[in-house]
Amino acid sequence: MNKQELIGTVADASGLGKGDASKAVEAVFDAISAALKKGDEVRLVGFGTFSVSKRKASTGRNPRTGEPMTIKASSQPKFKAGKGLKDSVN
Questions:
Q1: pTM here?
Q2: Residue 69 in contact with residue 32, Cβ under 8 Å?
């Protein structure tokens, strides 16, 4: 399912028009992104938890030349599925 299909499904399930459903989906994505950017966790009970994981700087190898190179420290978004989501899939 891509983003447009998600918006269509939300529109059908909620009775909203596609334009309003698009705004709603975008608002949810923006709210989650903003919270993660601040370093907060987003917990949706029964669905899952979005969080940010810090990765330390490390040394790797260039696959083409084999030369060592440094990989910068970064923040990575993570998602951990909740029990309700896991149960609905199984």
A1: 0.78
A2: no
